[in-house]
Amino acid sequence: MDEEYDVIVLGTGLTECILSGLLSVDGQKVLHMDRNDYYGGESASLNLTQLYQKFRGSAPPEELNLGKDRSYAVDLIPKFILASGELTKILVHTDVTRYLDFKQIAGSYVYRDGKIAKVPSNESEAIRSSLMGLFEKNRARKFFGYLQRWNPDDPTTLEGFDADTQTMNDLFTKFGLEAGTQDFIGHAMALWLDDDYKTKPAKPTMERIRLYAESMARYGKSPYLYPLYGLGELPQAFSRLSAVYGGTYMLSKKVDSVNVDDDGKFVSVTSDGETVKAKRVIGDPSYFGAGQEAEGGKIRVVETGKVVRAICILKHPIPGTENADSCQIIIPQNQVGRKNDIYIAAVSSSHNVAAEGVYIAIVSTIVETSVPEREILPGLQLLGKVEDKFVSILPLYAPTADGSSDNIFITKSYDATSHFETVVDDVADVWQRIKGEKLVLKKRENQEIEA
Fold first, then answer.
1. What is the CATH number of the domain that holds 187?
2. Predicted structure pTM score
3. Confidence band (pLDDT; 50, 70, 90) for 121?
4. How confident is the model at residue 113, as a pLDDT?
5. For every residue of the chain, which 3-state class applies, written as one string?
6. Which GO BP terms apply (predicted)?
7. How many domains are there within the chain?
């Protein structure tokens, strides 16, 4: 390989494939490699045989009558797309939507006092919600009404509240909202991972709640979309985009080494005895030692925690969801005495990811104890009868440096959330580290995802 590239990308996880596509569109000469013979890396979708082979080393049990292999595309990392969120903007901006078909997720729910309820996102839903009593509904109605009117550029809409300096706690106090209401607003609508947001300026949270409501209003029922045939379709779509703009893809390419010069700067990658040069390299943590000493004895990634996930096969919809063919359920950490939320993402044959009558529900959270599977019990108990279950406990990694000094840019592991907003945050962060400028997505006229 005598050719020199602008960027070598290692791993075909969604984060890496989005960056590969965006950089190719930007005019960069990209070489993309993966040790696997399939797209998606940690974020791949597996058929039934692959799923059982990965977790059990055996074939699917015949007595479960799960149907044909090709009917399945089971996500290893469950995530939904917020209809007005950042991933949607990237999909539309890059025109990747031409390679994909989407279906709406039927409902978004939150756990409260031992049961689940649909998340209200506007005044009328708040009035009907079982999450609040009569007086609290009135307070919530005023809160959502204020957020709808709120415009930072129009002082008449602020009602004396300064979102840049006053905290979210201050805003909750202003409307007298109860702790349980704060829970579902902060975690199931603003999608914060913990309660730190309450003591910070309110503006980012207010914008997140408005984004959720806007996403909800776009299609109704829920704010989330999902690609038919599983999330593994997303990395492939961005790979196609990169190829259209001249990107080169190589699967089943084992990476022997990531090479640096005497100053510690990246120069090349060696694969199967061949070495190819580039100005910079991007990759997922598994290509850079994952906490162990990498080339030159430098630790490039550190473990920041662990995530536990349980992929569950059901033959019925999740109880309490009005027989929804799909849903998201968030269990706020305060409801179950934890530091981190528990997430449930459920899809079914309606999304071409399972045989007729089969549902796939994935429960996940950040590990806090020495018994991770016990930590997801509150989620598992909501599912009803589980036909089979596959549990994984995976470390979460983050880079130790921003890459500016050695031209090695490392992405983060996928967290426990059941939406893509944190993934796109990582894409934007890596883009800024590489380009020295913010990722700006141009809006295409009269275009949005059909679902």
1. 1.10.405.10
2. 0.90
3. low
4. 87
5. CCCEEEEEEECCCHHHHHHHHHHHHCCCCEEEECCCCCCCHHHCEECHHHHHHHHCCCCCCHHHCCCCHHHCCEECCCCEEECCCHHHHHHHHHCHHHHCCEEECCCEEEEECCEEEECCCCHHHHHHCCCCCHHHHHHHHHHHHHHHHCCCCCHHHCCCCCCCCCEHHHHHHHHCCCHHHHHHHHHHHCCCCCHHHHHCECHHHHHHHHHHHHHHHHHCCCCEEEECCCCCHHHHHHHHHHHHCCCEEECCCCCCEEEECCCCCEEEEEECCEEEEEEEEEECHHHCCCCCCCHHHCCCEEEEEEEEEEEEEECCCCCCCCCCCCEEEEECHHHHCCCCCEEEEEEEHHHCCCCCCCEEEEEEEECCCCCHHHHCHHHHCCCCCCCEEEEEEEEEEEECCCCCCCCEEECCCCCCCCECHHHHHHHHHHHHHHHCCCCCCCCCCCCCCCC
6. protein transport; small GTPase-mediated signal transduction; vesicle-mediated transport
7. 2
